[in-house]
Amino acid sequence: MKRTTKYVALDVHQATTVASVREESGRILARSILPTEKDALLEFFGGMRGSVHVTFEEGTQAQWLHDLLIPRVHRVLVCDRRGEKRQGNKGDIADADQLSEDLRRGSLRAVYHGSGHRAALKELARTYENAVEDTTRTMLRLKALFRARAIRTPGQEVYQPESRGEWLAKLPDRAVRYRAESLSAQLDILREIRQKANEDVLERSVVILVQAPSHRSSPPTNHAALLERVVRA
């Protein structure tokens, strides 16, 4: 390709990626369907000359693709198109063409993507959220086990290790007691995971988020806002 500025849009899916390449005038130079694999993508961009601007939507593989391309092109913009009206079916060439045109016009809303440290932090935040969800499900299952046997479990006492023996004694069947013990053991482990992930997120995320351009002016002031920014940013 000629040594001109190119605007490349990638519509990324698990198996394949649709690419649309435009020049400065808006004319489409190329369209390609590539495997979503490191070697195929690097070969595709390796053949381009001049200033290359790349965009793709925020998603599961966005951080991986950002880190792969950032050293090899002039600019990488991860965009957020939630709430926008689309023409055509998502995933087709027309969608990639529209994305490359939006990139050329400068009308895309960027989502901040930084270093691998930030990607690790997002995974840590997801670990915390998953632990919270799993903890809630385990607590509901434990109470349901007692409720199915007409045993009332008001408050939080049934979850506490110090009163566990007393509650288990109310279950006459050995198999049911074993299930209750298993759920209680799961709950203990999940609480430890949640607490550790919570501490690590709070310790590391503030430092990283305030370095992000979109957050410098208004760093998060509470735990809920902090986690939301880490996961959604």
Describe the structure.
The chain has 233 residues and is an alpha/beta fold. It has 2 domains: 6-105, Nucleotidyltransferase, domain 5 (2-Layer Sandwich), CATH 3.30.420.40; 116-232. The protein has helices at 38-46, 62-69, 93-105, 116-147, 164-168, 174-209, 223-232, and strands at 6-12, 16-23, 28-35, 52-57, 75-79. A 5-stranded mixed β-sheet has the order 3-2-1-4-5, sandwiched between helices. Helix 2 (62-69) links the parallel strand 4 and strand 5 (75-79). Helix 4 runs antiparallel to helix 6 (174-209) and helix 6 (174-209) packs across helix 7. It is elongated.
What's the short version?
This protein is of the alpha/beta class. Helices cover about 50% and strands about 15% of the residues.
Gyration radius (Cα, Å) is 25 Å
Mean pLDDT: 85
The topology string of helices and strands comes to: EEEHEHEHHHHH
- Strand-residue fraction? 5-15%
Layout: helices, strands, pairs:
Layout: E1 6-12, E2 16-23, E3 28-35, H1 38-46, E4 52-57, H2 62-69, E5 75-79, H3 93-105, H4 116-147, H5 164-168, H6 174-209, H7 223-232
Can you tag this structure with a few keywords?
233 residues; alpha/beta; Nucleotidyltransferase, domain 5; five-stranded mixed sheet
